[in-house]
Amino acid sequence: MSSTSSAASEKARSAPSRGRRGWLRQGVLLMLAMGCGVLVANNPFRPSSENPDATARGYLRFKEILSYVDRDYADSVDTEALADYAVGQMLEKLDPHSVYIPARDREKTDSFLQSDFDGIGIEFNLFRDTMTVVAPLSGGPAEQAGVQAGDQILSIANKRVSGGHLSTIRLSELLRGPRGSSVSMELRRRGQAHLLNLTIPRSRVPNASVDAAYLVDGQTGYIKVSRFASNTYDEFKAALADLRRQGLTRLVLDLRGNPGGYLDRATQLADEFIGGSRKIVYTDGKGEQYDSQTYARVAGEFEEGALVILVDEGSASAAEVVAGALQDHDRATIVGRRTFGKGLVQQPIALSDGSELRLTIARYYTPSGRSIQKPYGANYAEYRADVANRAAHGELQSADSIRFAKELRFRTDHGRTVYGGGGIMPDVFVPRDTLAHSAYVTKLLSHGVARAFALSFYQAHKAELEGLRFEQFHATFRISDAQLVSLAAQAAQVGVTTDVASIRRCAPLLRNQLKAYIARSAYGPVAYYTVLREQDPELQRALHVVSDSTAQLALLGK
Question: Tell me, which GO biological process terms does this entry list (predicted)?
Answer without folding.
Answer: proteolysis; signal transduction
